[in-house]
């Protein structure tokens, strides 16, 4: 029986590339994002397109996730992997960011992600198997300019999924938390500014980042090995080690980095 993977944020960036690489490996996919049109285009482009299922969802509106999970398992019979890739970034200083923006980012990145995870968990528990992948960010390891709400949401992701990892080991359910650094994706285009408007620009850090194909290849190898966490990027990921062992030097260097 072919394995089944559910991917949120499937219509762009890391999520889209995960779909492409998993389909090449022969998995059956459940494709989710807000744009059904983009999902339809993606599905048509994938190998064995007739085997894949489209379930549009909006992480900001999670009340129907239990029903969507039931639909998914009814049609696909099982869910072996859940890739939580959907999310929203930020480009605004904390003092200028409305509380409405803080709440929206947390609702999408944290509450939406854990809501879908909790909807899928009973399925994996019944199977006595499964693997949940959370796409965090290097900003989930330390704060950074213009990312206060985004970084906070990713720190919350780490706490939740590290706890889940311990609790679900008894049910043969694995958890991997990925911390991408600068990856060449359009995430900055839709990032929220201080007043909910999209940033609308491809930041230099993204444009010059690791190719998304390489990022996802590294991620999938880590998932195959059931690693609990994986840092993905170029030299920027060394900042995590620097902060741990040489914090004074870390803060001196990080303060000089470009926000975009």
Task: Outline the structure in words.
Helix content is about 45%, strand content about 15%. The strands form two sheets. The protein has a seven-stranded parallel sheet, sandwiched between helices. A two-stranded parallel sheet has the order 7-8. With about 260 residues, the protein is of the alpha/beta class.
Structural features:
260 residues, alpha/beta, Rossmann fold, seven-stranded parallel sheet, two-stranded parallel sheet, 9 helices, globular
Summarize this, please?
With 260 residues, the chain is α/β, with parallel strands linked by helices. It is built from nine helices and nine strands.
N→C terminal distance: 45 Å
Physical arrangement of strands within the biggest beta sheet: 3-2-1-4-5-6-9
User: Unreliable runs, pLDDT <50, ≥5 residues?
Assistant: none
CATH architecture: 3-Layer(aba) Sandwich
Largest sheet: 7 strands, parallel
Q: Please name the CATH topology.
A: Rossmann fold
Cα-atom Rg, whole angstroms?
18 Å
Q: Helical region count?
A: 9
Global shape: globular
Amount of helix: 40-55%
How many structural units, i.e. domains?
1
Strand content: 5-15%
> Care to count the β-strands?
9
Mean pLDDT: 94
* Global structural class: alpha/beta
């Amino acid at each position: 029986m072919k394995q089944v993977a559910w991917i949120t944020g499937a219509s762009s960036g890391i999520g889209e590339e995960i779909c492409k690489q998993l389909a090449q490996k022969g998995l059956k996919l459940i494709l989710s994002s807000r744009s059904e049109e983009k999902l339809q285009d993606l599905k048509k482009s994938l190998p064995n397109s007739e085997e894949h299922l489209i379930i549009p969802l909006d992480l900001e509106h999670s009340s129907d996730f239990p029903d969507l999970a039931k639909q998914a398992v009814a049609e696909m019979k099982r869910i072996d992997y859940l890739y939580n890739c959907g999310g929203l970034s930020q480009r605004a200083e904390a003092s200028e960011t409305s509380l409405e923006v803080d709440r929206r980012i947390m609702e999408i990145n944290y509450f939406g992600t854990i809501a879908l995870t909790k909807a899928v968990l009973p399925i994996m528990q019944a199977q006595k198997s499964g693997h949940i992948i959370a796409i965090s960010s290097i900003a989930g390891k330390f704060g950074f300019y213009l990312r206060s709400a985004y970084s906070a949401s990713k720190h919350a992701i780490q706490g939740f999924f590290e706890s889940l990892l311990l609790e679900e080991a008894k049910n043969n359910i694995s958890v991997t938390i990925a911390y991408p650094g600068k990856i060449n994706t359009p995430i900055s285009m839709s990032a929220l500014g201080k007043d909910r408007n999209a940033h609308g620009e491809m930041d230099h850090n993204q444009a010059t980042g690791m190719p998304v194909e390489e990022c996802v290849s590294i991620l999938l190898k880590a998932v195959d090995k059931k690693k609990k966490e994986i840092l993905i990027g170029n030299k920027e990921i060394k900042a995590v080690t620097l902060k741990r062992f040489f914090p004074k030097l870390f803060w001196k260097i990080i303060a000089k980095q470009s926000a975009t």
